[in-house]
Amino acid sequence: MTSNREIHLASRPVGWPTADDFRLVETDVPTPGPGQILVRNQYMSVDPYMRGRMNDVKSYVAPFALDAPLDGAAIGEVVASEVADIAVGATVQHGLGWREYALLDATAARPVDPSIAPVSAYLSVLGMTGLTAYAGLLEVAAMKPGETVFVSAAAGAVGSLVGQIAKLKGAGRVVGSAGSPAKVERLRALGFDAAFDYHDGVRESLRAAAPDGVDVYFDNVGGDHLEAAISAMNLHGRVAICGMIAQYNATEPSAAPRNLALVIGKRLTLRGFLVNDHNDVRTAFVRDVAGWLRAGTLSYDETIVDGIENAPAAFLGLLRGDNLGKMLVRV
What we know:
about 325 residues; alpha/beta
């Protein structure tokens, strides 16, 4: 345990990132000081929001630094500890991914129980991903039983959970868009009432899938999906804007949506949100999701890439839509 490999940001991408924007760096394994722990990471998450942090612009979270390791959600085993309440061998979740060994203050780690679920689940259905789906649908969009829900990027980590939670909470109809016929079939297997490949045309496909209109739109994409949803929304519809992945790599402003004036007459609510604003529903989230998992009524998919050296490829694959469900790197 003397060598530690980590991924650094070598350059800021212009448009779509490439492998050359990342660098694999070998360093010494750090030694914890008072109040610190050393974690051997087992899994790390790659997420769409990380693309925005590669730009040197002001945002809700600081940009990644050049020639320094990236960070993000990770889970691993404590291999050295200088605190009394976190023992060697404990499994903890934290925010220093993109490296094999993470040195952090014990207050920045959250112990988890690997006997309840596979440890990777704490980065997906039982972690930030699941809470994003739960809070966005039920708190931000305030979905009511009987309503029609449309979810974009519905075969992704968040979207696939949104659709299932909507059905479990009594939605009348749930529609999802995805990027391939195989993903469309997966959505139907997960219980979506209708699903379509967005390459076949978003506006037309949504109109056919939700002929009576849409009450709630959970937006992961933006662009033409948001424009189509606005056209399909019923009066007093709500849009929970989680992400706009269609624009993350754009070098020019998006052409859509071009129909924002409809927001007025339809009295729509469009609300962006960050998951950290909704920690007050974490208890209800854990209670509901743990119960659904035990009952076998909630499923989740993972796409796992092996090796820290392949973390950049996993991230690039995520942006291309290569994943089904949560994209993880087994470190």
